[in-house]
């Protein structure tokens, strides 16, 4: 079974968390794209969706799912999104697709965060996947030096501008033993917009697509 099949499995399982007449927060990425496809089959049951990126907004519109603004929608009962890495505490590295800032905002505004992923995303220790950090363009070099001091190897993501007009530094070589502490520390560097560590607001449920079916881990 391919990783795409496992992603699809996880995406389909997330439909079980969609209650009638709700507004859903929808993340970004290939796993979420499968979720949007599945959601389009039951779109008559929901009020609409708040996207975490322009790419997701486009895909929702293509599926004729109403796209709503977070400010107008208010608190959301459910957020569904993928992850680049996730540990058994449901803390994550996110931002492989560069949508980390809006993902963090929509996750924070949601009551329940359901993470959907294929089995390769579950890890013991976060940090093999390079940690994405969104930075204000003028702070790129300064933030890079601060990351070097902390043992990371920042690499500017090539030809990439976020939906917010900023840059992404992908930070290699971090062994993240204390995700909460590192998230807070990196958030404090001037010029950092968002750190792709989701430890302060982890997922509440992980639906992991595996070769044997769905494995559900509760936070
Ligand atoms: C985008 C993300 C995605 O959730 C993450 O990259 C996972 O993507 P995929 O489902 O394609 O593996 O954080 O910013």
Q: In words, what does this structure look like?
A:
- The chain has 219 residues and is an alpha/beta fold.
- It has two domains: 3-124 and 200-218, Rossmann fold, CATH 3.40.50; 131-196, 2-Layer Sandwich (Alpha-Beta Plaits).
- The protein contains seven helices and 13 strands.
- It has helices at 3-14, 30-40, 54-62, 70-73, 100-108, 140-149, 179-187; strands spanning 23-26, 48-51, 76-81, 85-86, 92-93, 110-118, 131-135, 153-156, 167-172, 192-195, 197-198, 205-210, 213-218.
- The protein has a six-stranded mixed beta sheet with strand order 2-1-3-6-12-13. A four-stranded antiparallel beta sheet has the order 8-9-7-10.
- A hairpin with a 5-residue loop joins strand 4 (85-86) and strand 5 (92-93).
- The radius of gyration is 17 Å and the shape is globular.
- The chain starts with a helix and ends with a strand.
- The relative contact order is 0.18.
- It binds ribulose-5-phosphate.
- Ribulose-5-phosphate binds at residues 27-31, 81-84, 94-100, 103.
Q: Give the helix proportion (percent range).
A: 25-40%
CATH hierarchy, class of the largest domain? Alpha Beta
Q: What is the CATH topology descriptor of the largest domain?
A: Rossmann fold
Strand line-up in the sheet with most strands: 2-1-3-6-12-13
Structural class: alpha/beta
Main beta-sheet annotation: 6 strands, mixed
Task: Tally the structural domains.
Answer: 2
How many H/I helical runs? Answer: 7
Q: What would you report as the Rg, rounded to the nearest angstrom? A: 17 Å
Strand content: 25-35%
The CATH architecture of the largest domain comes to 3-Layer(aba) Sandwich
* SSE pattern: HEHEHHEEEHEEHEEHEEEE
Calculate the mean pLDDT score and round it.
98
User: What gross morphology would you assign?
Assistant: globular
Point out poorly predicted stretches. none
Distance between the termini: 27 Å
Bound molecules: ribulose-5-phosphate
